[in-house]
Amino acid sequence: MRPMTARLNIHPAILLLAALLLATPALADSPELLRPEKAFQYVVTDTGTALEIDWAIEDGYYLYRKKLSFDSATPGIRLLPFELPEGLPHSDEFFGEQQVYRDRFYVTIPYETDGERPTTLELATRSQGCADRGICYPPQLWTTAVDLVSTAATKGKPSPFNSPFSSGSANSALGDFLPVDEAFVPHAIVIDGNTLEVSWEVAEGYYLYKDKLAADTRSDDVQLGRLELPSGKPKTDEFFGETEVYYDAVFARLPLARATPEPVTLTVDLGYQGCAEDGICYPPVSRSLTVSLPQATAVGALAAAGGKPMISEQARLADLIGNASLLAVLATFFGAGLLLAFTPCVLPMIPILSGIIAGDGDKVSPARGFSLAFSYVMGMALIYTGAGIVAASIGVQLQAVFNAPWVLTLFAALFVVLALGMFGVYNLQVPSSIQTVATDISSRQRSGTLVGAFVMGALSSLIVTACVAPPLVASLTVIGQAGDVWRGGSALFALSLGMGTPLLVVGASAGTLLPKAGPWMNAVKEAFGFMMLGLAIWMLSRILPDGVTLALWGILAVMTGVWLGGLTSLGQGASAKHKLAKGGGLVALVYGAALLLGALSGGHDPLRPLANLGMQGNGAAHEASGLEFQRVKTVADLERALRTAAQSGQPAMLDFYADWCVSCIEMERYTFTDPAVQAALANSLLLQADVTANDADDQALLQRFGVFGPPTIIFFGRDGGQRRGYEVVGYMKAQDFASHVRQATSAAAITAHSETGK
């Protein structure tokens, strides 16, 4: 059995019920078990410079020393370091050797104020204790309002409010006062699928503070709006000043925003605080009520409900596809495609298209270049859209299919073949009779090259699938989950056209940028040949070890340097262009040598090939280290890890990763190594699912969260629940990701905050 922690990660009622059931035989003839606020009582007094806390513990009960802590909830007041008194030795079956407190003990906590001294201090006290009969209470969080004396005063008199449980001494009971659950009885009644009526019965002689009433939920499917409270009765309060209170009863309307229309069970956490007219004030409490909601009358009206939840980019775009006009959808996704056109996953198509245009001959006009580019873009867009529709409809992980090792190897070989053709190693010839017919058709239509451009565009869609981005996920979501193939496919097609628009510009300008017949035309073709080889290496880098990839880049750089004339002697009167080419060749040779040396020394980063050689600093390699993840393979692995994190009150982050995922590598090298990102995630459990193999376990884990492919990052709160709306899809820069993490973990902290009832 795992020991309980100092956070309320499991509902107190469940723990207490389980303990009572186990102990039923032993309790049959035992006295009634006291509530924790009766078993462990304290009074707080302010001396002007320190808080003096006098604890009184009922016979047969004890507090754990290590579970006792204090904190100031009042801005401007900071508690200073202090020492707890020594406790009694205790051998505990849950926590091992411990020190505990019994009967009476005394704690002094010095404090200091910043700026103007407030009149009261909200003291948060965390504790956990047990009864000798074997029953242990869950961790407790109590808040006490302490009257502060002026700095010139001596020790102040204890205020009735300074004890959260009684108006007398620390070891006195409530006397004639009602327990808090009898003084204030909360209720929740369903009005309709989007509205609750929340009410409190207030016993005679008691009242509730209006500004202390609150409602919260941990549901991912329902969001609570603003609690609509009536006006209360004005009251000049000794502790809170001018305020409003409720007597007898109070009824409030609570609007709900629903994510789905289906009936659902909802647990609402109600927070409140009240007092008795005769002077006793209770600490803030929280009680959970469960109701069954019928079918929603409205879905997605979150703003109307009084709050704006976090909505992920892909969810916002999916909603746009489903609800906006088709023209707006097409315009939005076309613009998104334009932005994606300048990412590492789309830029490689420019040298492919340029090579096609350069290979068409030396008389390419702007119109001819545009027609080739248009044919190429249409091939890419149609296949990209069609493959996306099919994959989303049947639930296939498109990214993994197109990035299988055999597929990448096949197309890398194709780029090598095309590069060799650019170098003039061979000329593809067909029988003369067929060539004559083809030439005749080509002279009239020039369609042969257009068809080739279309086919190359279709094959290039493989490159685009290497990256997952929010617009792609939104389109696939609408197709796969909503079943709207027309709107989802249209958005996907507009997205691919946007990605292809810069290619149309390249094609239209080819007639003016490319040189005419002559040696320069051959040089341009050979340059595109090197680009084709670079594309082959880039594709193989998804499946090859980093060192091998670095060596291949080094070989290509050396070959480029030789081609540029880096090893060729310049004669007398060499032209400026030859000198420039030789200079570029020498740079390429030096860089290639550095890459090869880096590969031999275990390097992996083409931008820092010699990092492992210790050529910087004091002779040691200081390579930025990334995040340390705990790997999970199956859904069961993930759930176990999340339960462990929830038990310790720790938020979690799950990163879906694959070796063939280009953006995953970018996140590993440039985002996860950033100090701000690491600081933001310092207190989170970091989980990673490597879905490179795309086996049955990987697919089950992806389907568990509706993930279409890596990189996708999901956040979980301190309760183990998914923080919906905070998902990250695709590459995100370090600064933006650090800010996003802080928001996600802050939202997770809100969940834990509500669990304590604070």
Short recap of the structure:
With 758 residues, the chain is an alpha+beta fold. It is built from 22 helices and 27 strands.
Account of the 3D structure:
This protein has 758 residues and is of the alpha+beta class. The chain has five domains: 12-162, Immunoglobulin-like (Sandwich); 180-293, Immunoglobulin-like; 317-543, no CATH class; 544-616, no CATH class; 630-755, Glutaredoxin (3-Layer(aba) Sandwich), CATH 3.40.30. Helices cover 41% and strands 21% of the residues. The protein has 22 helices and 27 strands. The chain has a five-stranded mixed β-sheet. Helix 8 (366-394) crosses helix 12 and helix 13 (470-482) packs antiparallel against helix 14 (485-513). The longest helix has 29 residues, at 366-394. The radius of gyration is 35 Å and the shape is elongated. The two termini are 28 Å apart. Residues 1-29, 152-174, 300-308, 437-448, 615-623 and 747-758 have low confidence and may be disordered.
Portion of residues in beta strands equals: 15-25%
Give the uncertain stretches in residue-range form: 1-29, 152-174, 300-308, 437-448, 615-623, 747-758
- In spatial order, strands of the major sheet run 23-25-24-26-27
Helical percent range? 40-55%
Q: Helix tally?
A: 22
Rg for CA atoms: 35 Å
Structural class: alpha+beta
Q: Determine the N-to-C terminus distance.
A: 28 Å
Please tell me the overall pLDDT: 75
The number of domains: 5
Shape: elongated
Give the strand tally.
Answer: 27
Main pleated sheet: 5 strands, mixed
Spell out the blueprint of helices and strands.
Layout: H1 12-22, H2 24-27, H3 36-39, E1 40-46, E2 50-57, E3 61-64, E4 69-72, E5 77-79, E6 88-92, E7 96-101, E8 104-113, E9 120-127, E10 129-131, E11 140-147, H4 180-183, E12 184-192, E13 195-202, E14 206-209, E15 214-216, E16 222-224, E17 233-237, E18 241-246, E19 249-258, E20 264-272, E21 274-276, E22 285-293, H5 313-323, H6 326-340, H7 349-359, H8 366-394, H9 398-402, H10 405-422, H11 432-445, H12 447-464, H13 470-482, H14 485-513, H15 519-540, H16 546-563, H17 576-600, E23 630-631, H18 635-647, E24 652-657, H19 662-671, H20 675-680, E25 685-690, H21 696-704, E26 712-716, E27 728-729, H22 734-755
Parallel strand pairs: 23-25, 24-25
Antiparallel strand pairs: 1-2, 2-8, 3-7, 3-10, 4-9, 5-8, 6-7, 9-11, 12-13, 13-19, 14-18, 14-21, 15-20, 16-19, 17-18, 20-22, 24-26, 26-27
Helix pairs in contact: 5-13, 6-14, 7-12, 7-14, 7-15, 8-12, 8-13, 8-14, 10-15, 13-14, 15-16, 16-17
